[in-house]
Amino acid sequence: MLETEDVKISWMNLNLKIKNKGLNTNQRSIIYNEFGSVGPKSMVALMGSSGAGKTSLMNSLAGRIEKHIAISGKIYVNSEERDPNTWPHIMAYVEQEFYFYENQTVEETVL
Q: If DSSP states are collapsed to H, E and C, what string results for the chain?
C-alpha cells in the first residue's frame, strides 16, 4: 500500500462526456481535455457552478466510474497509469456532505 506522503495523482487529456439515454447517441462534454495534478501533502479546492462536473471529475479520479459517464484520457498515481482493478481500494476523497464519527480516525472514516 502507498504511503500517503508519497502519493501524487495526475491526469492528462481527461475528457468526461454524459451519455444520453434512449436512441440518441449524442454525448454532452462536461470536462474537455483537462490536465492537472495534486502532489504530496497538498490540499486542493475544486470550485465551479452547479452542474459544472466537479463531482464527476472527483468520482473519475477516485475510480468511482459512473455508468452514464464516458471517460477518456490518462490518470496516473506516482507516474503509473491507474489500474481499474485496484484503484478504488487506494483512492478516496471527502465529499461535501460527509460526516465524521468521533470514535474513528479520519483514515478509518474515509476508507
A: CCCHHHCCEEEEEEEEEEECCCCCCCEEEEEEEEEEEECCCCCCCCCCCCCCCHHHHHHHHCCCCCCCEEEEEEEEECCEECCCCCHHHHCCCCCCCCCCCCCCCHHHHHC
The 10s digit of each residue's pLDDT in 19-74 is 877 666 778 888 899 999 998 878 888 888 888 888 888 888 888 877 888 889 99
Name the residue type at position 31. Answer: I
Q: Which tens digit of pLDDT belongs to each residue from 4-28?
A: 557 888 999 999 998 877 666 778 8
Range of the domain at 90: 4-110
Overall residue count recorded for the chain in this entry:
111
Total number of domains in the chain: 1
